[in-house]
Amino acid sequence: MTDLRVASDTSSFTEWGLRPLVLFAAAYTVMTIVHELAHALTAYALRVPFTLFHFAVNIDRAHGTLNQHAIIGVAGPLVALGIGLLSWGAYTRSQNSRLGLPLLYLVMFGVGTFFGNLISTAFVGDFSRLALTLQLPMAVRYSASVLGVLLLCGLSFLIGTELRRWTPVGVSAAKAMLGMVALPAILGTTIVLLIFLPMTFAFVYARIAESSFWIAAAVGTLVSRKHPTDGRRRLDVGWADIALLLAAVLVVRLMVHGITFAP
């Protein structure tokens, strides 16, 4: 069995490998909640009936115009993008503090949500409704999907290089990739799926497909180097990390049975 203790640092894997896992699941859950709430609040503002669930918003297609449905659809990805960009701005100013790592995950899941929906432009999803409303030709829609794949891979690679900077001094790139990317992506996604039970198969498939883009983050972690100026960033699990995850779980469970709005 591979020894996960670092050679030149007293930290063990259990001391720095748990926080990324907790924050992965917490940030993923928070961003999913925000995404769906953005859809619901937009529908509420437009007086379009809906039922808000923990993983989707069911819009009453018999009410509202096609344009209103398109606006409701793009609201989720746009809000997620905004949060992701704001998180990146905050991360650049506080990356050496305990707040840095959760902000980095919010960048990935916020901006990544937008790019992921861009991928779906040629198929189904929030941006596909906008494409139908604008009557965009299929060539444009497929181009948008390809662009989304490239942008999401690039974002994931960037996040991987940043995660490398969070590992303790003396941890190899391979161990950093395992502890900061591979295990959180695999186990974190599993935790998220358990949090959101029950759910449709389509939701399960989408979450697994999204996790595959962390392969680019793994590559970014492997090829990047630990910066000597990074110092020793805190990677021990704190009460705030646990509280964030538990609060997100509570909100999800409150949404499970659906919250209906019928003006």
Helix percentage range: 55-70%
Q: Uncertain spans, ≥5 residues at pLDDT below 50?
A: 1-10
N to C succession of SSEs: HHEEHHHHHHHHE
Which sheet architecture does the biggest sheet show? 3 strands, antiparallel
State the helix count.
10
Q: Count the strands? A: 3
Structure description:
- The model is unreliable at 1-10 (pLDDT under 50).
- With 263 residues, the protein is mainly alpha-helical.
- The chain contains ten helices and three strands.
- Helix 2 (18-45) runs parallel beside helix 10.
- It is globular.
- The longest helix is centred in the first third of the chain and has 29 residues, at 66-94.
Explain the layout of strands and helices.
Layout: H1 13-16, H2 18-45, E1 50-52, E2 57-59, H3 66-94, H4 100-119, H5 126-134, H6 138-166, H7 173-195, H8 201-211, H9 214-223, H10 239-255, E3 259-261
Antiparallel strand pairs: 1-2, 1-3
Helix pairs in contact: 2-3, 2-4, 2-7, 2-10, 3-4, 3-5, 4-6, 6-7, 6-9, 7-8, 7-9
